[in-house]
Amino acid sequence: MRDAPPSSWEELPLGDLVTRLVNGGTPPTSIAAYWEGSIPWITGADFTPSGLSDFRRFVSDEAIRQTSTNVIARGALLVVTRTGVGKLAIAPCDVAISQDITGVYHDRQRVAVEFLYHRMRQGVEDLKKLNQGTSINGIVRNDLVSYRIAVPPIPQQQRIAEILSTVDEAIEQTEALIAKTQQIKAGLMQDLFTRGVTADGQLRPPREEAPQLYKESPLGWLPEEWEIASLAEVVDFWDGKRVPLKEEDRASIPGPIPYYGASGIIDWIDRWLFDDDLILLGEDGENIVSRNLPLAFRVSGKCWVNNHAHVLKPKTKQNIDFWTEALEWRDYEHMTSGSAQPKITQRQLARMSVTCPSAPEQGWIASALEAVTDRLNLERRERHKLRQLKRGLMHDLLTGRVAVAVESVLEPKEVAANV
Fold first, then answer.
1. Beta-bridge partner residues of 88
2. Contact criterion met (CB below 8 Å) for 188 and 352
3. Same domain, yes or no, for 236 and 352?
4. pLDDT tens digit string along 111-130?
5. Cα-based torsion angle of the residue sequence 251, 253, 256, 258 in order, rounded to the nearest 10 degrees
6. Domain final residue, candidates 316, 340, 356
7. DSSP label at residue 84
8. pLDDT bucket at 2, cuts 50 / 70 / 90
9. C-beta separation of 279 from 296 below 8 A
10. How many domains is the chain built from?
11. Are residues 97 and 24 in contact, defined by beta-carbon separation less than 8 angstroms?
């Protein structure tokens, strides 16, 4: 049972909080004149978790006058109600919309658009559930206007939105740090996994400078001492040690246990029976990897994992960090099969060729990556904490479970401690 809103809040259908809803359309691509204007035109694909991406396409005034697309004014709420259902943004400028999107003009006397934006991030998930199991792929307008929302007085709405936006900004800043660190790590990995390091911790000279140190191989030019093996020769697959469980059964396992993977069948790894750490090759538990390709990471202790991941155990225990990094660095795009849900099978992985430096050099390479990997993991943990904070705040503030002081002004670092 959901929390009852405070008596000062008013619960209304969305239709009473908006002045109008506007649909969009796609101008015919066969008419070039429609696509030679300066008005941004967007679809569901142009939305990001924090708003809209850079505009990719523009339409003309003629397209607005003669086709089904419509311009939504700056400051209105944009809701993806068809393909990509559930994405939201506040229009940063006047934009034309496709049929995927509904433009929502809020009643300024009753609701602040920033509050409505945050509240509808919960609301669209509720609305999507109404059509599960039907042929409808989207949010029906009648459901949208009937969806009930509890709203406090405008000053409280603005304060709630300010707090949630502050956390959003912290998440975006952390994600920017993660992206920057990933770029640094990618460049370092490119050097380490193609040139390797010597006993004194220095990269080998590039092949152009010292061709005698390299040999040509099916995997490209490699250091002369390196060998090539199949992945099955260096790791054991532990997929068979997973125990499928229903999601409701998770509560029967005590203790805080990590869950790796954002969707799919949840399995339990009987990790507590063994002393060795494992490698998961799949999703990272925080983000669904957008390119549908694996991310390798090391896990210790008990964990949940979904059916999107492979579980690996290196045959040489002391070099688990090397193989974790080496598997993350690999390009798997040519191996993916399937269309809607690209995947990599265990058989494909087992036959995959990998480079094998000597055991000492594997350790040197892992050590060279340790600092940047630790920094990246720290940033990911911070992102996870902020996302958990955001989920808690949305529940507490958007339901009125926790009251906010309108006159107070909090610094970003004070939000968690004071709300």
1. 79
2. no
3. yes
4. 999 999 999 988 888 888 87
5. -90
6. 356
7. T
8. low
9. yes
10. 2
11. yes
